[in-house]
Every structure is written in C-alpha cells, then in structure tokens.
Amino acid sequence: MAPMIGAGPRPANEHADAGGAPHVEIRHIQIADIVDCMARGVEDFRCAPLYGMFFGAFYAIGGLVIVWTAFALDYPYLAYPFIMGFALFAPFGAAGTYEISRRLERGDPLSWPAILGAVWSRTGMELAWLGLVCLFPLIIWLDLAVFVFLAFYGPEIPSFPQLFANVFTTAYGLAFLLVGNGLGAILALLAFSITVVASPLVADRKVDFVTAVSASVRAVWANPGPMLAWAIAIGVSLAIAFATLFVGLIVIFPVLGHATWRLYRRVVV
Questions:
Q1: Cβ neighbours of residue 157 under 8 Å, at least 6 residues apart?
Q2: Within-domain flag for 162
Q3: Could you give the number of structural domains in the chain?
Q4: 223 in helix, strand or coil?
Q5: What is the Cβ-side half-sphere exposure of residue 133, based on CA atoms within 13 angstroms?
Q6: CB 84 within 8 A of CB 189
Q7: Where does residue 178 rank: exposed (0-12), middle (13-18), buried (19+ CB within 10 A)?
Q8: Nearest alpha-carbon partner for 97 in 261, 209, 268, 264
Q9: I need a surface site. Which of 65, 77, 171, 225 has the fewest CB within 10 A?
Q10: Count of alpha carbons within 13 angstroms of residue 10, beta-carbon side
C-alpha cells in the first residue's frame, strides 16, 4: 500500500479521529501517476465532450473579455498580466468538470441540472472562500506587474507595437520578460499549492476551505517532483491555449479539469 501523510482535518462525511476532528490523508505518487491522470482526463473529455466544451468556452470568453478590457482602457501592457492572473482562477472555473468526472466515475447519468446543481450544493461558500484566498496572489501579481513595467519603461507608456518589438527584439526587453515572468511563476506556484487539491476536495466532500487548503499544501509538500511536473504541464497547456487566442481553451480547459479530478482521487484518500 502506498505510504500516506496526514493532511489536516478529515471532512465531516469521512472517518474522524477519536476526538471527532476530521482528517484527510495524502498518498505519495510518482510522475507516472501524472501521466496516467492526464490520459484519464482526456478519456473523460471524450466521454462527455459537449459538457466539457461548454465550461471551456465559458472560460475562453472570460479571457477574451479581459484582454479586450485592457486594450479598451488603453492599458495594453496589462493584458498579459491579466491573462496570467486569470489563469489563477482556472481551478474554480473547472468545478463543473470535476462533477462530470465524478459522475462518470460512479456511473451516474449526466444532465445540466444535475451537474450545475451539484456543483453549488456541495461547494457553496467554501469554493467562494477559496476564490477569495486566490484573489490575494492576483492582486500582488498585478501590483508587481505594474511596478516592474514602470521600473523598466517609466511612466511613458509606449504604443503596443513599440512595446511588442522592444520586448522580443532587445536584451533590455528580454530582461523585462525574465523578471516579470520569474515573479509571476513564484506567485503561480503559491496559488497552485493551495488549490491543486483544495478545489476538487471541496467539490467532492463536506470540508471547510481551511482544511482543503491544508490538504493541498501537504499534498504538494509530500509529492514535490510529481506536483512540479503537473504545474509545468498546466502552464504549458495554458500557454498553448492562450497562443491560439483562447480558442484552444475550449478543449484544453476541460481536459485539465478532468485530469485534476483524477489527480485528486489519486492523491487524497
């Protein structure tokens, strides 16, 4: 049997310690588990593509609205930070895909009322609290993005073509990209650590968001290599989707959501 690590209180509908405190246990996993979870995510998407594409399209439209808003307000240099910040909320937008995978796993029928109703009835305010927790890294990230931009280019905002050319054709611009993306990666890893298990956990069990965040952090701590590989896979997948002007999110987003559910089931006892 795979070794397990205690990860905070167990949900109310699970076993409890003698004192009545809930407890969640974490399994150790390998890189091979990450690969298998991704394959199972693809299979879940193939079993219910229209449901998954609905959530993917919804998320893609949200990304397009954010980019349009940045350009409409004449802040093109904030478009990229907004997009990357928007990715922090992918685990919450994928709650519907967790429910789809959960029903496929149990052999339950799929329907829109069942999926949408179950997501809210089980997550409730706990998922909202998780979203609020992730709002802080987003705010910090946007503040840092503005600070880095001003540090490199000053208060005079160049036109978008000038900025684009400078960033990708000069050493100064590449340094700007390196610093900005380095800071963003640190915050992204923080957000990843507190949500990778927490989001599907609150969608599946009656746990509070503190318990869910604790379990997520402990899961990452117990499996640093595989979890880092999963974080990189998510980052690369989202980068490909963004490069397609969000069209790729229609498929990539639900596949990642289904795979995240499978990973949660593999990690959390």
A1: 74, 75, 77
A2: yes
A3: 1
A4: coil
A5: 22
A6: no
A7: exposed
A8: 261
A9: 171
A10: 17
Q: Please give the Cα distance from 116 to 100 (Å, whole number).
A: 10
Report yes or no on 175 lying in a domain: yes
Q: 88: domain range? A: 44-111+131-267
Written as six digits, the tokens of 241 are 């989707």
- AA letter at 212: A
Is residue 133 within 8 Å of residue 213, measured between CB atoms?
yes
> Is residue 14 situated within a structural domain?
no
**The pTM is what?**
0.84
DSSP structure class, residue 4: E
Q: pLDDT tens across 9-46, in order?
A: 334 344 444 444 457 899 999 999 999 999 999 999 99
Q: Give domain status of residue 92, yes or no.
A: yes
Measured from the Cβ of residue 111, the count of other Cβ atoms closer than 10 Å reads 11
> How far apart (Å, rounded) are the C-alpha atoms in residues 127 and 56?
19
